[in-house]
């Protein structure tokens, strides 16, 4: 494999990875939210029907657990971040293939593509690390 193939292979691999992760995060986020909405809607119904207290309490506990999982795993944030990175990588690929944008006058378009792709991936990784560190700090601790 030559360097040219490696650049496009890396780009295609990263586009596929971010696309899969974005779709997975979106699916998990929406699934959790649907269950939370249904459980929240059933609570007043179960109270009105005088269901046992453990049913109403259990639904409330389910909501707390699911919201806690969402907060812990940040599915919505990951969905948006991964989708944004995937779209930026696809944009870069299309500009390169069309010899447009910054690639029109580049002395070595493939090297420029590699640099720009790695920069996008690096930026996304840095954002992820910052968000992870922010989430790991004890509450009340300032940056």
Describe the structure.
This protein has 143 residues and is mainly α. The chain has one domain. The protein is 83% helix and 0% strand. The protein is built from 4 helices and no strands. The chain has helices at residues 3-48, 53-73, 75-97, 109-136. α3 runs antiparallel to α4. The chain is elongated, with a radius of gyration of 22 Å. The model has no long low-confidence stretch (mean pLDDT 90).
Q: Class by helix and strand content?
A: mainly alpha
Output mean pLDDT.
Answer: 90
Termini, distance in Å?
45 Å
Q: Helical segment tally?
A: 4
Task: Jot down its keywords.
143 residues; mainly alpha; elongated
The gist of it:
With 143 residues, this protein is mainly α. The protein is built from 4 helices and no strands.
Question: What secondary-structure arrangement, pairings included, does this model have?
Answer:
Blueprint: H1 3-48, H2 53-73, H3 75-97, H4 109-136
